[in-house]
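Justification of resources, computational component.

The compute hours requested in this renewal are based largely on the per-chain cost of generating structure records like the one below. Each record pairs the submitted sequence with a full structure-token output. That output is archived, and it is also reused by downstream analysis tasks.
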Amino acid sequence: MKTNRLVSALSRATDSAVGGIRIIKLPPTRMAASGDNDLEEFDAWWSKVDKERTDQFFPRDFMWFDKESKKLVWSCALTSGSTDTEGYDIVDFPGGLYAAAISRDQDDEDGERVYAAIKKWVRESGVFALDERPGHYAMFHVITPDEAYRAMGFRQLDIYVPVKIAQK
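The structure output for this chain reads:
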């Protein structure tokens, strides 16, 4: 019951007048990326690196589907001075504006619904335009801490769609 009420509340929030959509700006940065490596191996490395952080105020890791290589890529922003990526690719993340909203993790139908809602909201906003292009993809990040996951029974997923200010 608790899970169904939470899912219903999440759905209503995403369907509200603003669509539960927020605009954020991510800065350009260097990132380590999984590249051709196994995602589980990258997860083990990234989890170890993330535990060494002294701040936990914002996410540093994101995933996206790379349309050119046709595979899922996981990346994490490197802290200044980071040099040892244990062989993982270093990529220059361009940063930029993103429209973001929450979906239910591991629920592809909900993820597709939220992704479509974000894109529709952007198209109808009159203020923003989609900015998806090679190397600048929609991304996602699991945002639920373990204790909330245990209480809710599922994790939440932030979906980020790149946008730019629309030409007038």
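Residues 5-10, 12-17 have pLDDT under 50 and may be disordered. The longest strand covers residues 156-165.
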